[in-house]
Specification:
This protein is mainly β and 67 residues long.
C-alpha cells in the first residue's frame, strides 16, 4: 500500500486497504472513518492514518457535483 503524501481531512474520500471510506472526524489525532453510503452509521478509527490513500478531497467531490 502506498502511503499518502497528504493527511486526509474531514470529508475526504479515502482507501484503507481495500475499504473505501469517508473521514468523518479527527479527534485527538485519531482519524474516524465510515462507509461512503452509510451502512448503519458504523464509524471506526483508522488503523494507521499514514497508510490512508486519499482518493478525492471534499473540495474535489463538491466540484464534481458528488456532494
Amino acid at each position: 500500500m502506498t502511503e499518502t503524501e497528504i493527511m486526509p481531512t474531514v470529508g475526504d474520500e479515502v482507501m484503507e486497504g481495500t475499504t473505501r471510506a469517508v473521514v468523518t472526524d479527527i479527534r485527538g489525532g485519531v482519524i474516524w472513518l465510515r462507509r461512503p453510503h452509510g451502512g448503519g452509521g458504523t464509524e471506526w478509527p483508522a488503523e494507521d492514518p499514514r497508510k490512508l490513500t486519499v482518493r478525492r478531497t471534499r473540495a474535489e467531490m463538491i466540484e464534481a457535483g458528488d456532494l
